[in-house]
Amino acid sequence: MLHWWPERCGLRNSIQEALRWGNGKPGDGSAYKAPGKRFSYYHYSRWHNLSAHRLTAVDEVCYNCARFEDKNRGFVMALSSQFEEALVFATRLHAGQRRKGTAIPYVAHLLGVTSIVLENGGNEDEAIAALLHDAIEDQGGAATREEIRRRFGNTVVAIVDGCTDTEVVPKPPWRGRKEAYIAHLRQASPAVRLVSAADKLHNARTILADYRVLGDGLWQRFTGGKEGTLWYYRSVVDALREVGPAPLVEELDQVVTEIEQLAAENSSSYQK
Description:
The chain starts with a strand and ends with a helix. It is mainly alpha-helical. It has a three-stranded antiparallel beta sheet, with no helix packed on it. A two-stranded antiparallel ribbon has the order 1-5. It has helices at 15-20, 63-70, 81-93, 107-119, 124-131, 135-138, 141-152, 154-162, 174-185, 190-214, 225-243, 247-271; strands spanning 2-3, 9-10, 31-33, 40-41, 43-44, 60-62, 77-78. The radius of gyration is 22 Å and the shape is globular. The chain has twelve helices and seven strands.
């Protein structure tokens, strides 16, 4: 059973860091000091009595909660007001944008990507970057970058930059942009690869669902057409796999394979 406590433990990097910085003693209800206060966590009520908490600020970690984590039981991250601000900011930035060929608000895609990032172990900076991963490319370029930096910091900007294939208007030729982005993915940071893989997985799921309904008419939505889009998604999978296997990449591979199989089936039926 998890119990929400108003004065939440905060931990920036790891419980080991909290322990290194601590000055409490086992069982005395004192708190360990951890640098930073970006993330918030739940207390575990089954581990100790609520009265054992003596926290004075959100950048302290309860000793007994630290012990709980030290026994490999884990913390549950609670997203901070920074995430809430990013959610509103992203919604407003993309308010006039729709998913390709549909009336679906673009924020649906941003929420889908963010959900995948969090479900695959992403931290708050990565979740915020997921909300904003198309902001620089589609909503203002350099000016938007600096606004993201001001609001959410350099780490988020670096991830969003890593998910951006251009900020030039009009955009350069499609094939060249995509080839450059695929090459970039092979050298990208783990955070960029996580958000990018989540982005491509959400897109691929949508493509597969719509392809089953619309058939080859779907490809009219995409600059690369059928052949170019299939090439791009398979190339992204291959680039991500070069870094090493991961459940998210394997899921992306499965969805892309389903799209390829459906495309092959459609081609065969047209030839008969």
